[in-house]
Amino acid sequence: MTFTESAERTELRAAVSALGSKYGAQYFQDCARQGRKTDELWSEAGELGFIGVNLPEEYGGGGAGMYELAIVMEELAAAGAGLLMLVVSPAICGNIIARFGTDEQKQRWIPGLADGSITMAFGITEPDAGSNSHMITTTARRDGDEWILNGQKVFISGVDQSDAVLIVARTEDAKTGKLKPALFIVPTDAPGFTRQLIEMELVNPEKQFTLFLDDVRLPADALVGSEDAALSQLFAGLNPERIMASASAVGMARFALGRAVEYVNDRTVWKAPIATHQAIAHPLAKAKIDLELAKLMMQKAATLYDEGDDWGAAEPANMAKLAAADAAVAAVDQAVHSMGGNGLTTEYGVAPMIALSRIAKIAPVSREMILNFVAQTSLGLPKSY
Ligand SMILES: Cc1cc2nc3c(=O)[nH]c(=O)nc-3n(C[C@H](O)[C@H](O)[C@H](O)COP(=O)(O)OP(=O)(O)OC[C@H]3O[C@@H](n4cnc5c(N)ncnc54)[C@H](O)[C@@H]3O)c2cc1C
């Protein structure tokens, strides 16, 4: 075990940080406010090999792992330009296809996912299921060699900028009649597939949508992996999702803290900069401690995942997500507070993080569901729901 990052990882961190700074928070927030996408940043990140850094080299990826993709996410978020679709496209969809897709599916999708020319969204959440994904009702029915999907999804990110959505649906077990989850690649231009924008109070270029699947007909090879092993396949994508949500939150906490530190070192309303008041310095120090603790757990989760230990990665991935979300919300709150009125101005750029940091407490899995997981799985406590 080593706590010093390798030369390659240090270089990657520096290179992503440089790209993040080139675009920065102003660019990101301008895109969101003007209704533009962060296409320039996404394309450049793809060309530099950052987006597909975790994907297999033989299909055009970087051949590294989730540790490296988390570095990409964290450094962009730390620059104020965290790209939500990194959580979804290369981390969830890319990992699942790379691990469980057929050779044809890998050749079709991974090179584009890796260089950023293809973006794939991920849809599991449904209006009547929410946190209880066992309740999803989007159904896939076989029709000869084809599949027909019907159902609805909600809060699905980035569908307007995606070529396809990896949809979690259910198929009927021929013997028992029970519904079991299965994963399907649904092109966003498929007949019967429609989307509706959800108005969100988020300064974020990446939008959320309700999706309607109305007799969407798909070829046999739309099914990713086995019809019978979707839960373990899902895990292969959901641990990376939690690692990336942690990386985004850690980066956001770093961004907010960085802005606050700069501000309080400069701002003087008595004899010395306000940073000299411990009521300002101590909460910022506490925020720094909390974000570093969360980051350490995130790195443990990424390391275990990259070693192929899906189950071993699950506990730290969940713990890191909860800790990073709490750290980000607290860091942003403290940053805004430390900056007084300027903390809420558009100019200082931290106020949008109040809402953005809260996403990490709700999505991709809420903090209560993580506490449930830890209570039941780590502590062996009974389930109440
Ligand atoms: C910005 C954003 C982007 C998103 N992007 C995507 C995406 O790309 N793809 C996708 O599939 N989904 C996405 N989601 C959806 C997200 O994963 C869900 O919002 C999340 O899983 C919570 O589900 P819900 O909103 O239905 O809340 P609910 O399940 O209704 O929960 C509401 C509250 O009740 C609590 N609760 C529920 N059950 C329990 C329990 N058993 N014990 C204790 N407390 C409980 C929850 O913790 C929460 O606080 C996104 C959401 C947001 C906000």
UniProtKB/TrEMBL annotation:
Q: Give the species this sequence originates from.
A: Gordonia caeni
Record-annotated Acyl-CoA oxidase/dehydrogenase middle domain positions: 121-200
Q: Which residues cross the membrane?
A: 76-98
Its name, as the record gives it, is Acyl-CoA dehydrogenase
Q: Residue ranges of the Acyl-CoA dehydrogenase/oxidase C-terminal domain? A: 236-377
Cofactor dependence is on: FAD
Q: Does the keyword Transport apply?
A: no
Which SUPFAM superfamilies does the annotation name? Answer: Acyl-CoA dehydrogenase C-terminal domain-like (SSF47203), Acyl-CoA dehydrogenase NM domain-like (SSF56645)
* Pfam families, A to Z: Acyl-CoA_dh_1 (PF00441), Acyl-CoA_dh_M (PF02770), Acyl-CoA_dh_N (PF02771)
Where does the source fall among the domains of life? Bacteria
Which key words are in the record?
Answer: FAD, Flavoprotein, Membrane, Oxidoreductase, Transmembrane, Transmembrane helix
Domain Acyl-CoA dehydrogenase/oxidase N-terminal: from-to ranges: 7-116
The similarity comment for this entry is: Belongs to the acyl-CoA dehydrogenase family.
